[in-house]
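Bug #77: duplicate submission created two jobs. Keeping one. Sequence:
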Amino acid sequence: MLTVILWILSAAAAMLLCALCPALSFWWLVPLAVGAYLALCLVYVLALVIISLLLPKAEPQSHKEWCRHIIIGSVQWMLTLFGFSIRVAGAEKLPTDRPFLLVSNHRSNYDPMITMVALRRWRLAFISKPENFRIPIAGPFIRCASYLPIDREHARNAVVTIHRAAEYITDRGLCMGIYPEGTRSRTGELLPFHNGSFKIAKLAGCPIAVLTIQDHGRRWALAPRRVELHVLAVLDEETVKAASTGTLSEQAEALIREDLS
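Kept job's structure:
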């Protein structure tokens, strides 16, 4: 949507310049539109920089929905520029009347960005590595959009994040996403799951949505990079309540492994 808006504004600016300057012929429309688009992109990025500097450095007391919308719009714009083509299958399985915990395989740094754009209908935040919160511009925005850092090196700190994520689900009505592998798989093969990830759903008493991300790459150099999201199943509240975190982890891992194979 942001890409479309920027191109519409660029085309309008190019036509206005041609109308105001009789010396400019019709053939100037394309280079003027491209120049206007690049200028608008620069203005947009500068606006993001300024806003990020004004956002709080610590965890905010409340969820800022407008930050989530800015993240989604900016990420969708970036993915479009990078030639990503995203397809979602099974989204109708996801609850629309209650928040849930989202678990998935993790293959690339693009996974959270792809998922948040593909599932933008749902109020989704992610548990992410602390390094991402130190990224200029992006860090303050994801913090205010209720993303949570998790310390994978210290179990006690990780438990605090797990409890915090459960509170975000129950108190803020947010869907929380986490990658049970704990890190991205550089080979594409599914890594062992961490059972503690599923403790979030146990604490929040919410469903667990299980999905896979499959990156098919490009068929040729200039073709879009095709990515598919498959929503495999939703483990309801009764299932979550009755099963142990180990059992839930095994069920989710089995579903993901079967779909990937």
